Amino acid sequence: MTDTSDSTAGGPRLRAVPEGDDRERLTCPDCGYVAYENPKVITGAVCTWQDGGEEKVLLCRRAIEPRRGFWTIPAGFLELGETMVEGAVREVWEEARAEIEVGGLLGVFEIPHISQIYIVYHARMTSPAHAPGPESEATELLGWDEMPWDDLAFPSIRWALERYRDEAARPHLATHDRR
Amino acid sequence: MTDTSDSTAGGPRLRAVPEGDDRERLTCPDCGYVAYENPKVITGAVCTWQDGGEEKVLLCRRAIEPRRGFWTIPAGFLELGETMVEGAVREVWEEARAEIEVGGLLGVFEIPHISQIYIVYHARMTSPAHAPGPESEATELLGWDEMPWDDLAFPSIRWALERYRDEAARPHLATHDRR
Q1: What is the ipTM of this complex?
Q2: pLDDT at site A4
Q3: What is the pLDDT of residue A148?
Q4: CB A170: neighbour CB atoms within 10 A?
Q5: B178 touches chain A (CB under 8 A)
Q6: Closest-CA residue to A168 (of A127, A111, A107)
Q7: How many other CB atoms are there within 10 angstroms of residue A123's CB atom?
Q8: Which of A11, A12, A83 sits opposite B112 (nearest CB)?
Q9: Cross-chain Cβ contact B40/A37 below 8 Å
Q10: Which residues of chain A are modeled with pLDDT < 50?
Q11: DSSP A10-64
C-alpha cells in the first residue's frame, strides 16, 4: 500500500489490490470504498458552416484549464446514459451555443498515457449562430486559411481537424502513444 | 440530496450537485469525495482459427455473473494506460489463454442505457491453443454451424459475431438503444 495523498484530503487515496482483483486500485482508508478508475470517453464534433462558397469550422477558445486560452473543437466527457452522438450535440451547445446535425463518425483517437478516448463526429451547423458557453472565452467560425494550428489545445484537436480536412468520409482509428 | 445507500456500506452514496457542476454526482458523506461516473469502455475480439478449411471462432462460457453459463467472446473493461488493442489482447489471454494477432477494428457498439461502449476487433489466433482463465468455465473453438446463438451472454456478442460473419472488413458504429 502506498499513501499517494495530500493527508488533509478525504476520498480514495490508498493504492491497494482489492480481494479477487489483480491490480492496485485507489481505496479510501476512511470508508473502504474502491474507486475503479477506467479510461474516459470524450465526445465532440468538427462543426462546419458554408459561408457563401467557403467552409468555416467552429472553434472555441478554452476558458478553463488545462490549456486555457487555446483553441479546441467542442468536446467533453461522455455522461452516463447518453449516446456518443447525443454527447457531441450536448457539448456543442454547452461550449459554443451552436446547433448541429451530425453527419457521421470522423474517427476514434485514443491517448493511452492519459487514458482518454476521443470519439469525433463531423457535423453541419443548422445556422451560423454561435456564442461562448461557460467553459469558452470565445467562439469563432474560421476558414481553413485562418486555423490557429500553433494554438490548438491538444494533439487530438489537430488530428480531428486534419482528418476532417483530408478525409472526412472514412472513419479512422488512431493511437497517440507517448508512453 | 437523496441517500441511495445501504446505510451499513461506506463510500460515495449521496446524490448531490457539486459546486460548479450541473448534474448530480455520487458523493461520500464521510469524506466529501465525489465519484465522477462515466461510461466504461469494453474491449475484446472475435478470434478465429482456420481448422483445415473451416473457420472456427473462440468463445468462452462465463464463470461469473452477470450471465454466468452463457457464451461470450473474450472481452472486458479497458484498464488505465493501455491501448484498446492491448486491452483486447490481454482479455483474450485472461479469459481464454489464447494468443492472437489483431487484424483490425470490427466496430464500436454503444449501449447507452447501461453506459457501456464495446470496441471489438477481429483477430487471428497464432495457434489453436486455448483454455479457460479464472472468469471462464470453458472455452471452445466453434464453427459457424455450431454457434450457440440462443445462449449468448449479451446483445453485443451477437452483434459482434454477426458483424464479423457478414462484413468483417468495414468498421461499423452501432447503437443498442433500449431507453
Answers
A1: 0.80
A2: 46
A3: 98
A4: 13
A5: no
A6: A107
A7: 26
A8: A83
A9: no
A10: 1-7
A11: -SS-EEE--TT-SS-EEE-TTT--EE----EEEEEEEEEEEETTEEEEEEEEESS
